[in-house]
């Protein structure tokens, strides 16, 4: 494998060598190469077919929404329950910071939630979770956190869900998830 000094590229990875796949999120313009990569989507489709744990948080859910299942021609998420960065959170962050950060919180013209809902065969399978803007889960309190688990797939909305998301994803990897 050629080494450009930056490590292996997505196309160079062997999905079968991994026990789980974690797709982190983010909103800055630098995320476009990750969220829009066809090479990454091909590898994600290969991993998904292995029936191993897959977790996605925030914008990371877009990778799954944009990845097509070769057998069905539909999004990998078409028949799944999921969450992602809700539109109200994305819009609020943008409106509160646009004066200083410009379009930093608007990575794409469409809101994440709108794109994810459009990928679902039944948009009602999207779960927004409780409305919060500043309450976050912590290492010891999941009261404000929200995740959605559908079989071996786990999704979360934003960094405020990360502690609960991490514990649940670890349980999936250990095979003890409920």
Summarize this entry quickly.
With 178 residues, this protein is α/β, with parallel strands linked by helices. Helix content is 33%, strand content 8%.
Write the SSE topology.
Layout: E1 21-23, H1 32-35, H2 38-48, E2 54-57, H3 60-66, H4 87-101, H5 112-119, E3 147-150, E4 153-156, H6 162-174
Parallel strand pairs: 1-2, 2-4
Antiparallel strand pairs: 3-4
Task: Please supply descriptive tags for the structure shown above.
178 residues; alpha/beta; 4-stranded mixed beta sheet; 6 helices; 33% helix; globular
**SSE succession:** EHHEHHHEEH
Q: How much is the average pLDDT?
A: 91
Question: What is the SS-derived class?
Answer: alpha/beta
Count the E strands.
4
């Amino acid at each position: 494998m050629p080494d450009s000094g930056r490590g292996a590229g997505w196309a160079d990875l062997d999905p079968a060598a991994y026990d789980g796949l974690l797709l982190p999120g983010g909103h800055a313009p630098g995320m476009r190469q990750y969220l829009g990569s066809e090479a990454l989507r091909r590898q994600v489709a290969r991993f998904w077919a292995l029936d191993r744990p897959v977790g996605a948080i925030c914008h990371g859910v877009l990778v799954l929404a944009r990845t097509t299942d070769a057998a069905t021609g539909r999004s990998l998420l078409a028949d799944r329950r999921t969450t992602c960065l809700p539109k109200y959170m994305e819009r609020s962050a943008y409106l509160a910071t646009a004066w200083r950060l410009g379009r930093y919180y608007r990575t794409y013209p469409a809101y994440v939630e709108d794109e994810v809902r459009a990928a679902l065969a039944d948009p009602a399978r999207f779960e927004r979770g409780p409305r919060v803007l500043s309450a976050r889960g912590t290492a010891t309190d999941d009261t404000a956190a929200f995740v959605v688990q559908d079989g071996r797939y786990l999704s979360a909305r934003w960094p405020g869900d990360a502690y609960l998301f991490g514990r649940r994803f670890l349980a999936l990897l250990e095979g003890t998830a409920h």
